[in-house]
């Protein structure tokens, strides 16, 4: 049984005059201990998908249809009290800005202890010992000292370590990390990613890493979902997607990485921009930016087709797969 199963998920934003689709028929699974990534530009729907998993979509957004199951439990049908039992305890979230999570007027220790005691019936002393142990586990020096400090007294990287420690307090099955290293410099980014990877491996925790950077994803995730305008357009093993990207959008994301250009050259970029919810084009949403788009792409939405070990929603790939199959038949 999959640990997490998302099936045909549709998330809309209900405006005064219209409903806008933010996620469209999104489906994927996550196994226990597996690490997956969700990548795409800003506006692709990555964070909305992450928030949807624990039903944290704020109005006017709402889950219109579809299923989100944690093992055999349907999360979309749960009331607030039931969801509070899941949030933090079974599924925990790490946000890109730790100051949005940490309370500036409470010490680090008070916040960690409060988290533990809100879900368990243990003494303050025991909760304090657990908190200090978790701070030690995320490689925070002098955890007893940090326990009594306020968030503003810590560096950005240290605060992110505190957040990781906080999500480990209740031993969750899944961690959803939404751009957890965006606000950090490159050196600290690498340290945080290695820490997150080690923690998930050592504790058998499944990870959903949300990122716009395929370079970051390649270091952590076993499997990658590429999102564009609310759709998943490619899914497969991370190394396969990086070494042999199938969808033109995935190819564009990889070509835009800084390491894909020589020093002194202009960075590559995908022409155009992500469509807004009010300007979603017909057919394949990527067609206005795609160098291979045809009239069919403008009119119809492509279905997923298997290409090697990946699944891709693209008519170009579909034609190539069909041509290869036909050629194979003729050779026989």
Write a structural description:
The structure is a single chain. This protein has 332 residues and is of the alpha/beta class. The chain has one domain (4-105, 150-262, 272-331): Rossmann fold (3-Layer(aba) Sandwich), CATH 3.40.50.300. It is 35% helix and 23% strand. The strands form 2 sheets. An 8-stranded mixed sheet has the order 6-7-8-3-9-10-12-11, with helices on both faces. The protein has a 4-stranded antiparallel sheet with strand order 2-1-4-5, covered by helices on one side. The protein is globular and about 75 Å long. InterPro entries: AAA+_ATPase (IPR003593), ABC_Ni/Peptide_Import (IPR050388), ABC_transporter-like_ATP-bd (IPR003439), ABC_transporter-like_CS (IPR017871), Oligopep_ABC_C (IPR013563), P-loop_NTPase (IPR027417). It comes from Marinomonas ushuaiensis DSM 15871. This is ABC-type dipeptide transporter. GO terms for molecular function: ATP binding; ATP hydrolysis activity. It is found in: Cell inner membrane.
Draw up the topology in text.
Elements (H helix, E strand, L loop, with lengths): L3 E11 L4 E12 L4 E5 L6 H8 L7 E10 L2 E2 L5 H7 L4 E4 L13 H12 L4 H14 L5 H5 L8 H13 L5 E5 L7 H18 L2 E6 L2 H4 L5 E6 L2 E7 H6 L4 H8 L39 H5 L4 E4 L2 E4 L1 H17 L1
Parallel strand pairs: 3-8, 3-9, 6-7, 7-8
Antiparallel strand pairs: 1-2, 1-4, 4-5, 9-10, 10-12, 11-12
Helix pairs in contact: 3-4, 4-6, 6-7
The CATH superfamily turns out to be P-loop containing nucleotide triphosphate hydrolases
How much is the radius of gyration in Å?
21 Å
Tell how many strands the DSSP assignment holds.
Answer: 12
Number of domains: 1
The helix-strand sequence is EEEHEEHEHHHHEHEHEEHHHEEH
Main beta sheet, described? 8 strands, mixed
